[in-house]
Amino acid sequence: NMFPIGSLLALLCLTAAGSSCLSGTGPGEDPAPNPQANTRILFIGNSLTYFNDLPGMVKALADSAGVPLVQTAQIAKPDYALEDHWNDGQARRVIEAGGWTHVVLQQGPSSVLANRANLRQWAATFARVIRSKAGVPAMFSVWPALANFSDFAASIESYRLAAEDISGRFLPAGEAWRAGWRHRPDLQLYGPDGLHPSLQGSYVSALTIFGALFNRSVIGLPGGLRVAGGSFQITAETALLLQQSADEANGRPPE
After folding, report:
1. What is the rounded CA–CA span in Å between residue 48 and residue 243?
2. Is residue 76 within 8 Å of residue 45, measured between CB atoms?
3. Average pLDDT in the 213-224 region?
4. What is the pLDDT of residue 214?
């Protein structure tokens, strides 16, 4: 059943407004890197990150792929842009404490020129702190609302430019959505509100992030994962299509 977990996670996160959500910490607490982990990934974003526990999906994929000792954590707050996170202070404080091998940055689609400039400015601001603590910055390229579907290409370009500016990893989830639709236009990647991802939308995004961060194909990974709030199962046929879409977005040749 694919609906209850998304609803539960949305409820958990919306009621946790103003706190780090589903990061393994309580309201107001800072997520801390696990010194026993080999790879420690901190996500900084908003509801497009915390909906369906995307960081938890990335960890579950790593575990299922046999990648040892991966930790994911997040500071994700409703309607936040990177500038809001910087001014809020929590994300900066957690990064400055050190220990994160990767920090994944995300805000809204940032497709219009003013928002693109804002994304690039604050990605660069965060990247300086991330690099000073020996971390690798990465840009989680998201998607526009369904009502602004024509903004897809501009949004992807904004995140690509920001990743280029900071010599960071480009995590092209939005492009994976487009690849999925090229193969099967009826894929339900948006949730009911036309903005937040369905479980399939979060799953293909997590596949893209995992494949890009670990430089590997995601073909053959499980279509069912356990994350905060429960577990889900995507049919084998759809899971394979989404895995192929993630690989395509990451520029991997078909296997």
Report:
1. 20
2. yes
3. 97
4. 97
The answer to whether residue 254 scores a pLDDT higher than 80 is no
- CA gap 113, 93 in Å, rounded: 29
8 A C-beta contact, residue 6 and residue 51: yes
Sign of torsion over alpha carbons 222, 70, 50, 139: negative
> Residue written as tokens 């404080």?
93
Outline where 65-190 has alpha helix (H): 82-88, 90-96, 113-132, 152-165, 173-183
Query: Is the whole model's pTM more than 0.70, yes or no?
Result: yes
Q: Which two tokens stand for residue 60?
A: 């579950």
Structure tokens at 108: 């809204």
Q: Which two tokens stand for residue 196?
A: 């937040």
8 Å CB contact between 213 and 171: yes
Percent of all residues in the chain with a pLDDT value above 90, rounded to a whole number: 85
Q: Kindly state the DSSP code that residue 190 receives in the 8-state scheme.
A: B
228 sits in which H/E element = none
Tokens of 85: 């996170």
Over the chain, what is the mean pLDDT?
A: 90
Reading the block at residue 252, the tokens are 């991997």
Sign of CA dihedral 87, 91, 96, 101: negative
15: Cβ–Cβ under 8 A, 6 or more apart, which residues? Answer: none
Contact by Cβ (8 Å): 218, 190? no
Residue 233 has phi, psi (to 5 degrees) of -140, 125
- Three-class DSSP category at 94: helix
Spatial contact of 100 and 40, defined as CB atoms under 8 Å apart = yes
Asked whether the predicted pLDDT for residue 41 surpasses 90, the reply is yes
